[in-house]
């Protein structure tokens, strides 16, 4: 599914609509260059699931947790891999351990990483088209 948005607010609305399809236990890879809108998307998703904290980029903390309340979903884990040089550094984080039925994991995934480390994930690619425009592609994998 491909969607074009014309503002950060529209991208957050796409995230809100997408959030309504989640049941808990999903892993979502947000793939795109710096400034593509990955954190913006996460902000809309956390808000739609009832999170009240403002989503901040986890670039320096690597991983942030947000309590939410949407049926079975009680937690969003937001990860940013931009600090990492390559996939070899990743297993130390034991990310699959964070995957739980009450949790949705969102991982900002740099374009430089070749393949996803998650066994199954929903890939969301955000592409910078012009200053205010982004192309968003949502693809389930695994
Ligand atoms: P990333 O996490 O991918 O590095 P951010 O979400 O932090 O990106 O930043 C995206 C920037 O682009 C924000 O400043 C946002 O306001 C701006 N922007 C402009 N148009 C859009 C759009 N259509 N969708 C998302 N962000 C947009
Ligand atoms: Mg970001």
The rough form would be described as: globular
Question: What's the N-to-C terminus distance?
Answer: 17 Å
Sequence of secondary-structure elements: EHEHEEEEE
With strands numbered from the N-terminus, the spatial order across the biggest sheet is 1-7-6-2-5-4-3
Number of strands: 7
Unreliable sequence segments = none
Strand content: 25-35%
The kinds of small molecule bound in this structure are: adenosine-5'-diphosphate, magnesium ion
Q: Give the class from helix and strand content and strand pairing.
A: alpha/beta
Report the C-alpha radius of gyration, rounded.
14 Å
What is the makeup of the main sheet? Answer: 7 strands, mixed
Provide the helix percentage.
10-25%
What does this 3D model show about the protein?
- By secondary structure, the protein is of the alpha/beta class.
- Helix content is 16%, strand content 35%.
- The chain contains two helices and seven strands; from the N terminus they run βαβαβββββ.
- The chain has a seven-stranded mixed β-sheet.
- β6 and β7 form a beta hairpin.
- The protein starts with a strand and ends with a strand.
- The model has no long low-confidence stretch (mean pLDDT 89).
- Bound molecules: adenosine-5'-diphosphate and magnesium ion.
- The site of magnesium ion (MG) has 5 residues, from α2.
In short:
This protein has 142 residues and is of the alpha/beta class.
Topology:
Blueprint: E1 2-5, H1 8-19, E2 27-31, H2 38-48, E3 63-70, E4 73-80, E5 103-109, E6 122-130, E7 133-140
Parallel strand pairs: 2-5, 2-6, 4-5
Antiparallel strand pairs: 1-7, 3-4, 6-7
Helix pairs in contact: 1-2
Magnesium ion binds at residues 38-39, 57, 80, 108.
């Amino acid at each position: 599914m491909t969607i074009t948005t014309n503002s950060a607010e529209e991208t957050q609305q796409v995230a809100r609509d997408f959030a309504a399809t989640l049941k808990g236990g999903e892993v979502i890879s947000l793939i795109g260059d710096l400034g593509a809108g990955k954190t913006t998307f996460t902000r809309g998703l956390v808000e739609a699931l009832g999170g009240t904290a403002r989503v901040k980029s986890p670039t320096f903390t690597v991983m942030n947790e947000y309590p939410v309340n949407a049926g079975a979903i009680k937690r969003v884990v937001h990860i940013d891999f931009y600090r990492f040089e390559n996939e070899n550094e990743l297993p130390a984080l034991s990310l699959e351990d964070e995957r739980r039925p009450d949790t949705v994991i969102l991982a900002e995934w740099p374009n430089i990483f070749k393949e996803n480390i998650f066994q199954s994930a929903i890939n969301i690619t955000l592409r910078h088209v012009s200053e205010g425009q982004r192309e968003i592609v949502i693809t389930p994998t695994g």
